Amino acid sequence: MKSLLWFFSAFLLAFGARAWEAGGPYPFGVLNHRSLTFTAEYWNPILAWVSERAGVRLELRVARTANETTDMATRGELAFVYTNHFFTPERAKLGFTVLARQEGEGIRGQVVVREDSPARQLSDLAGQKVAFANPYGFTGYFVPYDALLKAGVKVEPVFAGTQEAAMGQLKFAQAAAAGVNSQVMADYARREHFAYRVLWESMPYFDLAVMAHPKVPAADREAVRRAFLALREEENGRAVLADAARKLGLERPRGFVAAQDADYENYRRFFRETRVPLAGQ
Amino acid sequence: MNLIAHLSLRSRLLLALAGTGLLLFLVGGGVMVRIAQGIGNEVLAQTAAREARLLAVTFVEPLILRDYTTVEQLMRHEVENAEASVVRLSGDGVSIEASDRPASLQRPAWFARLLQLSPAHAEERIVVGGRDYGGLTVIIEPGFVEDRLWRLLGLGMTIAGSAMILLALAMHFILRANFTGLEAIRASSRRAAGNLTERIELPTHAPPELVETTRVLNHARDLLQGKMDELATEKERWRITLSSIGDGVVVTDADGDVAFMNPVAERLTGWPLAEAQGKPIEAVMPLIHEETRAPQPNPARLALRTGKPQAMANHTLLLARDGRELPVHDSAAIVPSVAHDTPGELCGAVLVFRDDSERRALLKELRMMAFHDPLTGLPNRRALEGRIERALRQVGIEGRSHVFCYIDLDQFKLVNDTCGHAAGDALLVEIVELMRAAVPAPAAGGGERSLLARIGGDEFGLLLFDCPLDEGVATAERLVGLITAHVFRYEARQFHIGASVGITLLEPGMSTGEVLGRADTACYHAKDQGRGRVEVHSPAHAGIRALDEEMQWVARFDESVAAHRFRLYRQRIAPLTAQDGAMHYEILLRVLDAEEVMGPPGRVLSALERFGYAHLLDRWVLDTLLDHLARHPEDRASYAINLSGGTLSQADFLAHVQERLTASGIEPARLLFEITETAAIHHLAEAQRFITTMRRLGCRFCLDDFGSGLSSFAYLKQLPVSMLKIDGAFVRAVHEESTDFVIVNAIAQIGRDLSLDVVAEWVENREIFDKLAEIGIGFAQGYFIHRPEPLPE
């Protein structure tokens, strides 16, 4: 059944008529790490600047959850997407290519507890609720849950929808621990003054990548790529980044650097080795 | 306005409260509507803005998600469940609108028209991260605000109405409770209707202000009642007074019209009060001049015109209604108003008048009496003096020659004393008739030729006008002859009367007193010369000059006293055979003469006695002695004072002695008065009364010069004396003359028999002293015993 679904999706992606292909702005999907409003607050200025810089109109498109956003991209409704969900074996087949990535040393998956939690190691979480963003999340689900599974700790996974929603469940004691993106967790803790403790942390992975649908014309794709890279190079672009970072309470503005599919090979390797069931992803 | 005037105070207060409440309601209502409008519009605007903001936030995520269905559902939910009437989203290629059906409202339409609230519009752009997702418009109809305000108004009106009702009820009960006292005052006033004894009774819970007010009112009623009683009493008193007094009283108003008349005024004017009231005062009591008959102004009218009291001129006659003409005497006073609003303003006049007939007749009589002797009808001394004064002016200015005669009857006192005053009066009338017939009658042309006047008891003055001295002497001699020839018969007894006349010529520069004095002196001289004579005054005449000197003594008596020319001496009266250890003195008078030599007062005393002033000397002696005794309490002796006959006849001398004795505190027993036999004979009745009274006080009396008179022994029966002083003439030779011895011995015997002390004076040597002791005389006085010495200072 799932195969049929994927087939249908691939069919639509290959042959289905998409609104953005008929003209109009390119839908730019953003993986839900935060609330919709914070997401829009952060990305709308960036997309406006990039659109103007690239001469290619981009329009923010977000679904209610990260899964739904990823499903939208899977259904070919998005021309561009900022995600790390498309390195699973099945989604890799959709042909999205990496144009750029968020600058930085990369992100890590973490299992975190509240600072006052009695848990000192992963085994202390056995039998307890552990909040995750969604079943598609890489650092927000796969990586930490993989670690728990490999550690032999059976927990009760709880999906909050987004990374910050999972962090919210931890903050308000709805879960004993949370599997999180180290970067998003640090940003959230700083903004919300939340004290937490890391029980486990993964190896670093590059942060999310700006990826383009294979149907996006190369010129537009290139223009968009350059524009993203120009953000940190040009003064008004940095101003947009700084303003966007300020709204999210980030420690510093984060621009975009050039990246390619090979940069995300460790993602692909993880999915090959993980014990977490991929369920057709 | 009349309606309000009849409203009670409580109704007025309630009406005022209701009016104020209504006014407050209207004004407050207007203000509240204004406030409600402001609040309503503000609430609408705020609600619209709030709703727009909330909806914008709510719509952010659906718009990010492009979930327009959710947006529409949220809009519909909003307009159905919240205050927004219309919510519209337009932009970003979509336009979504939701509107509500007009809700059924509670408030009436007029309320909405009154408030005039407008629908509120709020616009809100939905921008996220610079991306404009469209404009949100929220419209809120004012209906819900109007409903809320309507409900609020209803609640407010209910509360306000309830408060008003409660306030009205409270005011009603408060006023009823507190105005009960006022109602009591009002009811009392209605019941009283002028009855000031009516008392205002307050309920026990009456407020203190009313209690105080009522107390004042009751007190004021008491005071007023008291004043009205006093006024009524006063009015009655004045009515009775006015009715009782003998004067006529007419009261006019400020216009001079009669307002009141008392019965006397009615009788005198002939106008009854009822008819006179309202008539002008001149009509009721017309006045004319007694002699000219000219109309006279009425004093009441004058008083009203001038504002000052007026007195009617003399010689005024009142023409009574019945034609009588009454001499009246009157005065008018103004009546100032005492009303508090016209103080001092004239409100009438009071005319007081009386029938002056008797008074004027009496005045005429008095005038007659003042200048005439009532017994003889002759001009009296005052009239004579006035006429002499005028005559003297004629002498000086016109060179006319007048003569004045001083006529003194002889033996008049004998008639008076033996037959009484009636006989004396009859004698005087007869003599006057004689003289009247004898003096020059008025000339044919009415010219005055003589004036016969009675100067004193039996003394007359005759002023002869334009008469030479010799003619005057002739006239006087004729009068003396007529009087001497006249035989006065009274009750079968016959008396021959004589007269002595002194004459003087009126000369320029003389005074009336000098004229009288000269004629008097001449008359004295005529008496001295044997009576029945006429003597003309002449300064060169020796006898006249001597008399003048004596008169000068009398005239200068006061000056002599002031100049200490009189001194008191004392001579001891020593007990001879009497057993008496007390000291006794007789006070003797000494006079400092012109050569400053102290001597006996012989001539002075006789002059004073002659001219009737001896009593002055006796008073001085008495006063001086009493002063001395008061200054010298160590002097415990008794003193004898000589009294002249004239002193005994002084009506006030007795009272004077009593007063001085009382004032000085001197024991009366230390005073002994010596009265000569002759003085006692001439003033027997007065002497008896004086001696009796003073003996009662404790004073003693001595009959002086006893034995010198013809009937000394007889007077012992009539004079209650305690001592006899034998005349010195019998004592001086008692040791040599057997007659004197017999007389003195007899007197001593009488003294012993009558238990009287006997004093012998003039004891000048041892022989006399021894002889008197042999006879048994009690006391002796004389140079042998003690020479007179001044009273110690």
Described by strand count, sense and barrel closure, the largest sheet of chain B is: 11 strands, mixed
Helix proportion of chain B: 40-55%
Quaternary assembly:
heterodimer
- The top-level CATH class of the largest domain in chain A is Alpha Beta
* CATH architecture tag of the largest domain in chain A: 3-Layer(aba) Sandwich
**According to CATH, what is the topology of the largest domain in chain A?**
D-Maltodextrin-Binding Protein, domain 2
How is this structure best described in words?
The complex is a heterodimer of chains A (281) and B (793). Helix content of chain A is 40%, strand content 18%. Chain A has nine helices and eleven strands. In chain A, strand 6, helix 4 and strand 7 form a beta-alpha-beta unit. Chain B has 793 residues and is α+β, with helices and mostly antiparallel strands. Chain B has five domains: 173 residues, Beta-Lactamase; 49 residues; 115 residues, PAS domain (Beta-Lactamase, 2-Layer Sandwich); 167 residues, Alpha-Beta Plaits; 234 residues, Alpha-Beta Barrel (TIM Barrel), CATH 3.20.20.450. Chain B contains 29 helices and 30 strands. The two termini of chain B are 103 Å apart. The mean pLDDT of chain B is 84. At the A-B interface, helix 2 of A face helix 2 of B.
